[in-house]
Amino acid sequence: MKKTMISLLAVALLGTSAAFAQEQDPADLPEKPTGLQPWTLRVHYARDNKDYEGWGVYAWKGPRNGAPKWPGNWRFNRKDGYGVFYDVALGEGATMMEFLITDGKGNKNCPNDQKLELSSNLAHKGQEVWIRQGECKLYSARPKG
């Protein structure tokens, strides 16, 4: 009886911690980004008002698994000191990614399709790009200010 109760308690505790991990809000995630995986593009995005509801990456050339269904996107799911970010898994051998930052309803951060030439080191250490609200410029390093 005692062993059964201990086993049930252990299962309940494991289930609670697993549920907590799945329900954790991206805003509560740690600010220190994890290292980049090979063939990954980390897309950072900053909005002045810090309202990221619905915003994410829509990409059609370069991602390993193809594009999300328009007007959907891959929602930014992590945060850092700059704003939010999403890691796009790229197809091996990818040399370019074409994409938009959207609100998931078809509204775009930049009215133009964006193209990013991918680094030759992508296969070894991934790549990062930084984007600001309302700008079409792609930064290869975190912009100041």
TrEMBL record:
Residues spanning the signal sequence: 1-21
Keywords attached to this entry: Glycosidase, Hydrolase, Signal
Keyword Hydrolase on entry: yes
Record-linked InterPro entries: Carb-bd-like_fold (IPR013784), CBM41_pullulanase (IPR005323)
Residue ranges annotated for the Pullulanase carbohydrate-binding module domain, each copy included: 40-139
Family membership: Belongs to the glycosyl hydrolase 13 family.
Name the UniProt record assigns to this protein: Pullulanase carbohydrate-binding module 41 domain-containing protein
